[in-house]
Design a protein that fits this description.
Layout lengths: L1 H31 L11 E5 L15 E5 L11 E5 L9 E11 L5 E7 L4 E2 L4 E2 L3 E9 L2 H8 L2 H64 L20 H5 L13
Length: 254
């Protein structure tokens, strides 16, 4: 069961890592590619829709739209194009509207009349070929809102900072847990060494007692020990049987 919980925890940690890295990459991509006419990703330019001028038919504000470069001469009525607006109120902005018809501007340059399907009102200026960025290819609903949120302080905190913070905290807990286990293992090894040393000391003590008995001759005779002083010929059979002797020095006394 413990292994199961550890596995589940590791899965969540890696999911957090993946989430944090993905959010960081998305933020970088959104900052360097989205709404940039001079940048593309895999041949597509990407824009976050800021209005509902096409909401009645194709995409809403907050959607992420994909636009691809196109030869303006291949465009026709009904196509949706992105272009750099020349209108006074939106000059320089990238607008994505539908082509109503082909036409020419006052200087005789070919272009298109465009309009937003929600209002069905023609744009004020003719969109000439040099102003066209590309042709609309599709959209990803609401993704633009998400990337816009990522650029805010709360978005950065929730989607990037918080996951990385949780990962760091998890690794810190794991580190201290490993340190605790290491100390416990070291303590256990020290205790084992201590116990082994005590056993060796006890054995050494017994061996010293045996050698003392040999030197004094007080425990190696079957004769009854005299009162008051040891009898060199006395043999303490109980002492002998309860101790192991491998010293040839007193093997003969057995």
């Amino acid at each position: 069961m413990k292994k199961f919980f550890i596995t589940v925890k590791n899965i969540f940690v890696w999911l957090f890592v993946l989430l944090a890295v993905s959010m960081m990459l998305f933020t970088i991509i959104s900052s360097t590619v989205f709404n940039r006419n001079d940048r593309n990703l895999f041949g597509y330019k990407m824009y976050i829709v800021n209005s509902d001028s096409m909401a009645s038919t194709d995409f809403d504000a907050g959607d992420l739209i994909l636009v691809k470069e196109v030869n303006p001469t291949t465009l026709q009525e009904g196509d949706i194009i992105s272009y750099i607006s020349q209108d006074t109120y939106s000059f320089g902005e990238t607008i994505t509207h539908k082509i109503r018809s082909a036409t020419f501007d006052a200087q005789g340059n070919p272009g298109f009349i465009t309009y937003g399907t929600t209002t069905n009102t023609d744009d004020a200026s003719i969109v000439t070929y040099p102003q066209i960025v590309g042709k609309y290819q599709g959209n990803i609903p609401h993704l633009g809102k998400f990337f816009a949120f990522l650029k805010t302080t709360p978005g950065y905190f929730v989607c990037i900072f918080l996951p990385f913070l949780l990962i760091i905290l998890n690794e810190a807990v794991r580190f201290f847990g490993l340190m605790r286990d290491y100390k416990q293992e070291q303590t256990s090894e020290l205790q084992e060494e201590k116990n082994k040393l005590m056993e060796e000391l006890q054995a050494l003590k017994k061996e010293m007692e045996v050698h003392k008995a040999i030197l004094t001759g007080s425990r190696f005779s079957d004769k009854k020990q005299s009162e008051g002083k040891p009898d060199p010929e006395f043999f303490d059979r109980e002492f002998y049987e309860n101790n192991y002797f491998d010293d040839e020095e007193f093997e003969w006394r057995k």
